[in-house]
C-alpha cells in the first residue's frame, strides 16, 4: 500500500495539482509509511530543489484535503480506504551532503606502516595447549 501511495502521490503532485507550486518543481516523495489500519499515511517529501522548503511544505499541508481527494480519484478502484495524509520534510539528502562536506574537510593523517613480521607468510596454527 505504501508503494502504491508513493507512486500515485507523485503523479498527483506533478500532473494533477501543479498549480500548488506556481510553476515550480513539485517535491519528490522519498518515503511513505502507512499505519497498520490504513488510517494514516506519513508522507516524507524531499524539498531540495527550489527555495523556502518550509513555505512549500506549508502549502502542501494547507492543501492536504485537495491532495487526498485527487489521490482518491486515482486509486478508487485499487484501494478501499484512502488514508489521512500527514506530510513531513525529509532532509536526509541535505544531511548526507553536509556530512560529505564535513568529511571532505577533515585532515586525517596517514596511518604509520606496520613492521613486517618474518613469519607473516606462514598461516597461523591454532594452539591446542597453553605451553606450545
TrEMBL record:
Coiled-coil parts of chain: none
Region feature Disordered, mapped onto this chain: 109-132
UniProt KW keywords = Cytoplasm, Ribosome biogenesis
- Coarse class of the protein's main subcellular location: cytoplasm
Top-rank lineage group of the source organism: Bacteria
The record ties this protein, via Gene3D superfamilies, to: 3.30.300.20
Its assembly, as annotated, is: Monomer. Binds 30S ribosomal subunits, but not 50S ribosomal subunits or 70S ribosomes.
Q: Which family does it belong to?
A: Belongs to the RbfA family.
- Identification of the protein by name: Ribosome-binding factor A
What organism is recorded for this protein? Hymenobacter frigidus
User: Quick one: which gene encodes this?
Assistant: rbfA
